[in-house]
Amino acid sequence: MKLIIFDFDGTLIDSAPDLVDSINEMLKELNLKEAPFDEAVKWIGNGSLKLVERALKYNGIDDKYFLEKAHKNFKEKYKHSNAKKTILYPFAKELLDELRDYNLALVTNKPDEYIKPILQKFDIDVFDFILGGDFEYKKPSPVPLLRALEYFNINPDEAIMIGDSKNDILAAKNAGIKSIALTHGYNQGVDINEFKPDFIVHSLKEIKDIINEL
């Protein structure tokens, strides 16, 4: 392996509490029905616009112009949350330190403006390449991963994708890249086994041994 590609939310950080709080603050301000945590957490994935779209559909709303207004409202709410409830998953920092000899990439559907502040807050700003959700293509499209391969000028069989959702696993498969799936993230209530990643782990602590064997 020459390149390790990480997802962010649900893989390295547990950001669900802040995301759910922000989406419910948005719904409350728009006089819409808030959602319990176990319901709202299923909306995470595919970027912030899709998150807001799912929250509005929960309220029976499917309107493009209202979606734009609600999305802007949500982004302000989330920005002001300052990731106050977000935490690193156990062994995240240790794993990144152990992998410093590899090229490291972060490919996430999270909007760009939120990425760096969180990386710096947790002292994990170690990535050689970062591609966020402002990019035209989002996982499960393979294009973000192919862009990472292109940046480092390496082949798909020299890289591995580490993520927690079907978006990560399908993007890796579509790009011809091996994948490691974590069971502790957000996959919209679906068992990650269904998407047949190459490896499944329950903790970030298990990942270094897998990479050493490849």
The gist of it:
This protein has 214 residues and is an alpha/beta fold. The protein has helices at 16-29, 37-40, 48-58, 64-81, 92-98, 112-121, 143-152, 166-175, 207-213; strands spanning 3-6, 13-14, 87-88, 103-107, 129-131, 159-163, 178-182, 199-201.
Overview of the structural elements:
The chain is 43% helix and 14% strand. By secondary structure, it is α/β, with parallel strands linked by helices. The chain has two domains: 3-14 and 86-213, 3-Layer(aba) Sandwich (Rossmann fold), CATH 3.40.50.1000; 16-81, Orthogonal Bundle (DNA polymerase, domain 1). The strands form two sheets. A six-stranded parallel β-sheet has the order 5-4-1-6-7-8, with helices on one face. It has a two-stranded antiparallel sheet with strand order 2-3. It is globular. The mean pLDDT is 96.
How is the secondary structure organized here?
Blueprint: E1 3-6, E2 13-14, H1 16-29, H2 37-40, H3 48-58, H4 64-81, E3 87-88, H5 92-98, E4 103-107, H6 112-121, E5 129-131, H7 143-152, E6 159-163, H8 166-175, E7 178-182, E8 199-201, H9 207-213
Parallel strand pairs: 1-4, 1-6, 4-5, 6-7, 7-8
Antiparallel strand pairs: 2-3
